[in-house]
Amino acid sequence: DQQVKQNSPSLSVQEGRISILNCDYTNSMFDYFLWYKKYPAEGPTFLISISSIKDKNEDGRFTVFLNKSAKHLSLHIVPSQPGDSAVYFCAANQAGTALIFGKGTTLSVSS
Amino acid sequence: DAGVIQSPRHEVTEMGQEVTLRCKPISGHNSLFWYRQTMMRGLELLIYFNNNVPIDDSGMPEDRFSAKMPNASFSTLKIQPSEPRDSAVYFCASSFITGKTDTQYFGPGTRLTVL
User: Fold this and answer.
1) How far is C-alpha B70 from the chain's CA centre?
2) Is the dihedral of CA A20, B102, B42, A68 positive or negative?
3) How far is CA A2 from the centre of its chain?
4) Secondary structure, 3-state, chain B
5) Confidence class for position A99, pLDDT limits 50, 70, 90
6) Which position among A44, A77, B76, B110 has the lowest Cβ density within 10 Å, counted as fewest Cβ atoms?
7) How many CB atoms lie within 10 A of CB B67?
């Protein structure tokens, strides 16, 4: 049973517009959520995270929103750039345990 | 720091052969994770170690897979005998687990092809 789900396998956005990537989870015990970005032939790289005690965390063009009641988080990228084209993984865990990853969403930003 | 180092980057072998993947975690990190990425299953955890001790190996597919961490700076993932269905990208990651934030840092991966 998938505890972390990314229901959209792909997303296409024009340069300069907002990209919104979504993630749903089932385990209410998760207390830490992360987004990773992955380019071809490279390992996933950490992008941004949020603790369950917060509902928003912002880092430059990237903002993660957490809605605990809906067990939903999203990653907003504003403005989107062609270099943002990659696979984005959502992950979650309880402190001290291994991360559980979603299957990823491929973002394509066209210029 | 050089980040997580994995070797080899690519491995092509024949069915039945033994394969050993290697990982050097980031210095100072106390946890190490082995993942496998396939198109069908995405990124799945195989095993993780905390302070060199295996904590959860429930993701290891079967007895053909084994992992060791003899010291804080080295780990191996071994497949013996290898099968074509083991073809995947294998990632190693490390982190410093504090009980609060557990950001994991990934290596570049080893692309394994079993013919």
Assistant:
1) 14
2) negative
3) 16
4) CCCCEEECCEEEECCCCCEEEEEECCCCCCEEEEEEEECCCEEEEEEEEECCEEEECCCCCCCCEEEEEEECCEEEEEECCCCHHHCEEEEEEEECCCCCCCCCEECCCEEEEEC
5) confident
6) B76
7) 20
Q: Note whether A62 and A51 are within 8 A (CB).
A: no
Q: Give the tokens for residue A17.
A: 């517009």
Q: Which of A41, A45, A98 sits opposite B48 (nearest CB)?
A: A98
For residue A40, give both structure tokens: 């071809």
- In Å, how far is A97's CA from the nearest CA of chain B? 8
Which of the four pLDDT bands, split at 50, 70 and 90, describes residue B99? low
Output the average pLDDT for chain B. 92
Distance CA A53, CA A64 (A): 13
> Which residues lie below 8 Å from residue A65, measured CB to CB, with a gap of 6+?
A55, A56, A73, A74, A76
CA distances from B76 to A35, A68, A71, B49, B110 (A): 27, 38, 36, 12, 12
Of B93, B97, B107, the CB nearest to A96: B97
Structure tokens at B1: 């720091």
Mean pLDDT is lowest, of A7-11, A48-52, B19-23, B94-98, for B94-98
Phi, psi of A44 (to 5 degrees): -60, 140
CA distance B62 to chain A (A): 19
**Cis bond leading into B25, ω under 30°?**
no
Q: How far apart are CA B69 and CA A29, in angstroms?
A: 29
